[in-house]
Amino acid sequence: MSQIIKDALARGANCFVTTCPMCQMNMDTYQDAVCERYGIRKKLPVFFITELLGIAMGFTPQEIQIDRHFVDSLGLLKELNLI
Hints:
The chain is mainly alpha-helical. The protein has helices at about 1-10, 20-40, 50-55, 60-65, 75-80, and strands spanning about 15-20, 45-50. Strands 1-2 form a two-stranded parallel ribbon. The longest helix is centred in the middle third of the chain and has 18 residues, at about 20-40. The mean pLDDT is about 95.
């Protein structure tokens, strides 16, 4: 996972979007530990694709439970004026 994070950051990514709920959970849950172990300073929010579809359809982050992610996801959504 550390290489995935490093590659994403090197390419200027601002988040991860997955189509697999298990991948979303693992990336979100364990990113803190992986970043600490490998000296990665920046963490990226991780979204399951249907969460972003829900935001596009007008659901609130609370309705979709994005506010419960381990890595802050609301900051990016606010920065992009999506919420």
